[in-house]
Amino acid sequence: MRLELREITKRFGDFTANDAIDLVVEPGTVHALLGENGAGKSTLMNVLFGLYDADGGEILLDGERRVFTGPGDAMAAGIGMVHQHFMLVPVFTVAENVMLGHEQVRGPAKLLDLDAARAKVTEISDRFGFHVDPDALVEDLSVGAQQRVEIIKALSRDAKVLILDEPTAVLTPQETDELLEIVGQLRDSGTAVVLITHKLREVQAIADTITVIRRGTVVGTAEPTATQEELASMMVGRDVSMTVDKDPADPGEPMLEISNLTVIDPATQLTVLDSVSLEVRRGEILAVAGVQGNGQTELAEAILGLAEITSGDVSLDGEPLAGRSIRENLDAGIGFVPEDRTEDGVVAAFTIANNLILDLYDREPYSKRGAIDPSAVADHADEQVERFDVRTTSSQALTGSLSGGNQQKVVLARELARDLKLLIASQPTRGLDVGSIEFVHKRIIEERDKGVAVIIVSSELDEVYALADRIAVMYHGRIVDIVSPDTDRDTMGLMMAGAHGDQEEAA
């Protein structure tokens, strides 16, 4: 099925997210969409999938104009979408998730026909080599397998155009390779695939055509033979360095020391951190690598005090952290970038300016004699908005009105505005474009070079390799090993999957 978008325009108030965008996706091709944060990529696809109503333009499928009033219309027309955050019910089986919303019934009693759903899952799984058990509970599946379930859902509804939104964000290198193979099979079967991603290596590996969107407008197309530097330059409108320029680390004394740290989740009584021991020295970056859900989140939260420590010791600059309040730990010199900016990083109903002083509001110059000084807050916000290139009409705009990537910039700007001893950054560039990633990486290196101890938690191996002085690999709540950035990607991927020798504690 041939997809054509003609002059698609979408506005949110005075802001134009899509400005008369034209796009043609041919059957049996992979069409990549590249662009900065807020460029309009996801908005365009949400219009196509019926989640947003367009303010102008038209959608054509095989030359026929179509109007979608919701995702149901889009799916009925042969369009499927796999969202970055999976839309699955964890306690349902694969077959139950696949039939959800499109239930088949049988017999006079109109009972759910789970056999038909199982057969559909098995047929699609066998056709593409997905190896998915239709009776498996989704909560027991790996992240990569859950993503295959999402693809099966779309294909079970006869999707001829499949939209993949940042599909490799939480996958291991091996799972990423498997997904790219699946995308290639879908292309060969005649499916048109629209791939939204910021990972230029993947675009070069699988795309047939690349469309670059900048500030709501198509600025050009490129062949997958284009270099990463050329693609990045098209995205941001200037030259971008694709490598992190840093001198070798010159570590000092240990700043953070962790010994036999164990955390048990009070809700499930599961051990989420199992006797973790490590240290981070002044002036070095320790990157924590691993597939999301293997204890990295709990490690970061336990250091700050967000997760209750069951046993073990954590100290910063020789002072114990356990038992102190989060505010006391922040005041001790910890900067913290949480992995979920929406839930833990910003207050959506606050202005950008107020979010930028959440941990500084009671200090001069922002507060005098117990009252906040609005002019000082505004000046600080304007400076940080410009410095971090936060895309907004005003620093007084509500933070909830920003794109996810721009919200992330607000969090980073706030945390890096203080004098730090330890910076903990979980997924620091998630959702950021290549230009912003370049800037954030430079700032992190600057913190290291000032003598700050830095912990980076990232599912992006490119980022881990670019920033790390040492790499701690986590699997099932334990440190598998601590290795150098010279470790090859295949070995790293095996360790992340728990398939590299015995798990061991390392310091």
Task: Outline the fold blueprint.
Blueprint: E1 3-12, E2 15-25, E3 30-35, H1 41-48, E4 56-61, E5 64-66, H2 71-76, E6 79-82, H3 94-99, E7 105-106, E8 111-112, H4 114-128, H5 143-156, E9 161-165, H6 173-188, E10 192-196, H7 200-206, E11 209-214, E12 217-222, H8 228-236, E13 254-264, E14 271-281, E15 285-289, H9 296-304, E16 311-316, E17 319-320, H10 326-331, E18 334-337, H11 341-345, H12 352-355, E19 367-368, E20 371-372, H13 374-387, H14 404-415, E21 422-426, H15 434-449, E22 453-458, H16 461-467, E23 470-475, E24 478-483, H17 489-496
Parallel strand pairs: 3-10, 3-11, 6-9, 9-10, 15-22, 15-23, 18-21, 21-22
Antiparallel strand pairs: 1-2, 1-4, 4-5, 7-8, 11-12, 13-14, 13-16, 16-17, 19-20, 23-24
Helix pairs in contact: 4-5
> What is the count of distinct domains?
2
Q: In what range is the share of β-strand residues? A: 25-35%
Number of strands: 24
Q: Tell me the CATH superfamily of the largest domain.
A: P-loop containing nucleotide triphosphate hydrolases
CATH architecture of the largest domain: 3-Layer(aba) Sandwich
Distance between the termini: 55 Å
CATH class of the largest domain: Alpha Beta
Kindly report the spatial arrangement of strands forming the biggest sheet: 6-9-10-3-11-12
Rounded mean pLDDT score: 89
Query: What characteristic shape results from the CA principal axes?
Result: globular
Given the structure, what is the number of helices? 17
At the third CATH level, what is the topology name of the largest domain? Rossmann fold
What structural category characterises the helix and strand content? alpha/beta
